[in-house]
Write a structure and sequence with these properties.
Order of helices and strands: EHHHEEHEE
Shape: globular
Number of helices: 4
Helix content: 25-40%
Number of strands: 5
Distance between the termini: 25 Å
Largest sheet: 5 strands, mixed
Length: 147
């Protein structure tokens, strides 16, 4: 678990239910949504987009959505917004299990494939929160700086 991690309980419905439409269900769709939000913010504020910061945000959303699919029973909600100096991405899934850092080797000492997603998220995001959802599952929100 990363040091910035927080767990909290909220009583609000899924954002997708509030909007009346489902969000992205694939990492590529989530990446496109993040890229659109960041590019639009840069256009509206007439500020150049930092390519490295956008790449970090795209990597974080890829890891969050992939983890939800592989370990959380699928994506149940997705939300992205650009707030202040960062992009905030929230991905909900069906699992109540908290993310963990997997050891680099298995019990026999062989190197594992994968297991790098959560450390990447924790390294690139300034604020990571895990929220228990009232209907079960969790929502992970990460704020990635854009500068």
């Amino acid at each position: 678990m990363c040091e910035q991690h927080r767990t909290e309980f909220v009583l609000e419905p899924f954002a997708a239910e509030r909007r009346g439409r489902a969000g992205p269900c694939k990492p590529a769709e989530a990446r496109r949504a993040v890229e659109r939000a960041v590019v639009e913010r840069c256009r509206v504020t007439d500020c150049p987009c930092d390519a490295d910061a956008l790449s970090d945000a795209l990597l974080v959303v890829s890891e969050l959505t992939t983890n939800a699919i592989l370990h959380g029973g699928g994506i149940t909600d997705f939300h992205v917004d650009v707030a202040g100096p960062g992009v905030r991405v929230s991905v909900s899934d069906r699992s109540d299990r908290l993310p963990v850092v997997a050891p680099p080797t298995d019990p026999q000492g062989r190197w594992r494939v994968g297991g790098h997603g959560w450390p990447i998220i924790c390294r690139l995001a300034h604020d990571v929160r895990v929220t228990d959802l009232p209907s079960g599952g969790k929502c992970i929100t990460a704020v990635v700086p854009l500068s």
